[in-house]
Amino acid sequence: MKFSLLSAIAFIAAAATAQTNNAIVDIDRARSLKEEADEVDNTELNRECHKQNGNYIPSLKAGQYSTSAFHNCFRTSDQIYEFIDTLVIQNPKLLSKFAISKSYKNATIYGYKLTKGHSQSLYFQALQHAREWISGSSILFSLASILDDIANNKPTAADEYDLYFVPIVNIDGFEMTWNGTRLQRKSANEVDLNRNWPTPFENPNPPPKEHWSYPGPEPFSEPETAGINKWLQSKRGEIQGFIDIHAYGGLVLYAYADTKKPIGGGVDEKFEVLGRGMKSVMGAKYTSGPAHTLYSSYGVFPDYAFREFKKPAVTIEIGGRVFTVDVSTIPIRGLQVYNGIKQFAKEVTVFNGRDVTPTKPSCRD
């Protein structure tokens, strides 16, 4: 849904109080004053959208989930979980819910498993950085689209792998973005969760606590990352690939972000093929490459996942140039991520050099 006069008024009012702090960054770089001024607080605009696009739960129907009015607005955590929980109820043989971790404020972080009975799986997560609402809406649109494809007998990534979705990693920070701190990036403990994963390298310029990328006192110091890691360890050997969804920039990034040294053994070339395959289906404005060619960062999830589990892990930086994007971009970016996930499943099989072997059906995680 698009807003006309209402949208314009809200954007003008918000722009008057837009932050001009260089701590506002996209793919980990300081931004210009013009870029900062383009950020607006679109919280109330979306609350108004909720009023105009409510009561969508009764109309949810298999094969039509991705066209639901749910996707007309950016949604709160309660709305997000209500939506996916309804999909679980309507698809009990395909979809199940599980707790994957806890937050600093002791909130439960939920995951969802979409299964057709395979022995191998893929893992997708979003909203490590709370303000990147489009990453959350895109993972939800992707899940809805895959369920639609299954209902409509179309090929999906679920034909080859079971799929795990964690839509809101930084649940505390996400709540903050809906309650007065729209551009909150870090957790409620003011730690950048996407710097809290282990790395063999020491950051030569460690950021202080007040910095936007403060990694915490040590790897896994935060309950969010520690809990997710514990769960991932329990799936060792099962999960064959990982995607961490962020915004913005129009990028598909792979190992490594913390070193320029090649991986070797033909793996760099495998990542290059994987990246090219994903960007080819996500749109002409996407590019791919090793994360370090764009910026250096330490303790990011994909680097850790690849090193620890020896399986391909990538970051999707959704296209765009601001965090506070219009609701009209939800299906556009959602489709891009959905296409990326679908291609990722194909590329992972080639990358890992093995066949996917199904087992008896199960909907448990």
Automatic annotation (TrEMBL):
Domain of life: Eukaryota
Domain Peptidase M14: 69-348
One annotated GO molecular function: metallocarboxypeptidase activity
Signal peptide: 1-18
GO biological process: proteolysis
One cellular component (GO) term of this entry: extracellular space
InterPro entries documented for this protein: Peptidase_M14
Keyword Cytoplasm: no
PANTHER family with a match to the protein in the record: PROTEASE FAMILY M14 CARBOXYPEPTIDASE A,B, SLL0236 PROTEIN
Family, per entry: Belongs to the peptidase M14 family.
Protein's name according to its UniProt entry: Peptidase M14 domain-containing protein
Originating organism: Aphanomyces astaci (Crayfish plague agent)
Top-level taxonomy: Eukaryota, Sar, Stramenopiles, Oomycota, Saprolegniomycetes
